[in-house]
Amino acid sequence: MNICFATSECVPYVKTGGLADVCGALPKALSELGHRVRVVLPLYRSIRVFDHGFERVAGLQQVPVQLYDRQVTFDTWRGHVPGSAVEVFLVDCPAYFHRSQPYTNDGDEADRFIFFQHAVFHLLQRLAWAPDVLHCNDWQTSLMPVLLRKNYGWDRLFAETASVLTLHNTGYQGRFDRSRLPLAGLSVSDFYPGGPYELHGAFCFMKPGLLYADVINTVSPTYAREIQTQEFGCDLDGVLRSRSRDLYGILNGIDTGAWNPATDTLIPFTYDADTLEHKEKNKQALLREMHLPHAPDVPVVGVVSRFVHQKGFQLLQPIMQELLHRVPVQFVVLGSGEAYLEDFFRWAHAAFPDRVAVYVGYNDRLSHLIEAGADLFLMPSAYEPCGLNQMYSLNYGTVPIVRKTGGLADTVHDYHDGDGRGNGFTFTDFTPYALYVTILRALGVFKDRNAWETIMRRGMTQDFSWTASARRYVELYEAARHRQDLSVAV
Ligand code: ADP
C-alpha cells in the first residue's frame, strides 16, 4: 500500500506530544511490513534540516498554492526517518512556520494549517503520487478528508485514495472564526448551526474530519468508546456517535529501542525479568541521586508527568499528608506544568524531606532512572487517550497504579481482580478517597515479595511494540479502502 501521513509533528524533528511519537514510529513499522510510506510535515524554524540530512527537491521549489484571494508558495525538502525507508517531505513556508513554537495564538493560526493541508495535496500532485491511504492526524490535518472529496475530487490521481483520521486527543479541535472558511476553500453556505463545519458558532476543523474521513480511530479502544459520551466527547460526542460504525481504537506502541530495561543506556544497571536484583541497584542509584535514604522494604512511588489537570495529581493533594503519616512510602516526582501542582509537590518535599523528592523540569535521563528505580508508578489521570508511561512502567517491572480510563484501562489490570492478568492496581472514581484506598491496597501487596514479583513479571513480558499496532493499522487502512467493518469491533 502507498500511505501518506499528513502531520504537524513527528519525532525526531518536532514534538509537543504523543502525536509526534506515533508519526515517527508508526510509518517506520508500516514500512517494515512492506508498505511505502511518505510523511509530510511543516518545516518549523526549530527543525535543523542539514542535521537531519534533508535536501531540497529540485522542481518542487516555489510551488504556488492559491488560498482564496492570496497566493502562498512553498519550497520542499526531502529526507528519511532515521534508519528506515520512510521518506519525509518538509513544506517550507517561512511566513507561516518560522515562529517560536509549532502552535501559536497568533491571528493566522487557522491560516497556517489551512495552507499546510492544501500544500500536502499540491505536493502529492507534483509528485504524481497517489496514496491508497491519506492518514490525517488531529485538528491540524482534519480538513483533509473533506478537501479530498470537495476540492481535489476532480483529480483522478486521488480517485482511489481513502482517508483515515486519527484522534490523539479530542480536547484540541481547531476552533476558529467562520471568516476562515473561504480561505480553506469551503463553501460559506455550508456553514450553519449543526452543519458540517459549525460547532458552537465556530468553524471547527475536527468536525468535518469526523464526518468525511472514511474511517476514524483513536489511540486506545477504551478512549474510542469514552469519546462517544458527553463526559469525554468535548462537544463532539454526538458526531462521534453518528460515526460509531467507523470508529476504532488502536493502542499506540512504545519505542522498544529506547525503552527496554535490558538495553537502556540511560540507566546504571540494565536488567530483565530474570535479573530483578539489578532493579534494586537502580533504586539505590535513584534515591542517592534524589537525596533520599534507601531502605529495601520502603516502596518508592515514581511520577513522570506534565502537571496539568488531565493528569489527576490534584487527587493526591488532600491525601498526601495522611498517606505519609500512615505508611512507610517514598515519592520521586519529575514533571512541570501548572503552578499549583508544582507548588504542591514542592510543599510535600519541604514537609517530608526524607520521603518526597521533586525535580521540577524536563529530564529524559531521570525519567528513565525513575522507571528503572521506582517500585510503583502513579498515573491518576482524569482522561488518557493512550498514555505511554504506564507501558514503560510495565516493561520496567515498575507496578502502575492508574485510574481506569482510556489507554490506562486497556493496559493495566488490577491484581485484586484475581483473573491471572493482574499487572497493576486501578481505580474508577475520580476521587482522592479512591486513589488513597488503591495506593494502600498496592502497598499491602508490596509486602508479599512473591506476589509482587509475579505482578512485575506479568508487566515485563507484555509486548507493547509498534509491530503489533502497525498490523492493526493495516487492517484499518483496508477497512478504509473497502469501506468495510473490521472484524474486531470496538
Ligand atoms: P502525554 O503525551 O499526555 O504527556 P504520555 O504518557 O502519553 O503523556 O507521554 C508522556 C511522555 O513524555 C513520556 O515519554 C514521558 O516520559 C515524557 N515526559 C513527561 N514529562 C516529562 C519530564 N518532566 N521529563 C522527562 N520526560 C517527561
General description of the model:
By secondary structure, the chain is α/β, with parallel strands linked by helices. It has 17 helices and 19 strands. α1 (18-32) crosses α17. The longest helix is centred in the N-terminal third of the chain and has 19 residues, at 109-127. The two termini are 24 Å apart.
Short summary of the structure?
This protein has 490 residues and is of the alpha/beta class. The chain has 17 helices and 19 strands. The strands form three sheets. Strands 1, 2, 3, 4, 5, 6, 7, 8, 12 and 13 form a ten-stranded mixed beta sheet that branches. Strands 16-15-14-17-18-19 form a six-stranded parallel beta sheet, with helices on both faces.
Task: Identify the notable features of this structure and list them briefly.
490 residues; alpha/beta; 10-stranded mixed beta sheet; elongated; disordered C terminus; binds adenosine-5'-diphosphate
Parts with pLDDT < 50 across at least 5 consecutive residues: 484-490
Beta content comes to 15-25%
What general outline do the C-alpha atoms trace?
elongated
Could you tell me the mean pLDDT? 96
Measured between the Cα atoms of the first and last residue, the distance is 24 Å
- Structural classification: alpha/beta
Q: Identify every distinct bound molecule in the structure, by name, code or SMILES.
A: adenosine-5'-diphosphate
Task: Report the total helices.
Answer: 17
Residue share in helix: 25-40%
> What's the multimeric state?
single chain
Q: Biggest β-sheet: count, sense, barrel?
A: 10 strands, mixed
Count of extended strands: 19
- Write down the Rg: 24 Å
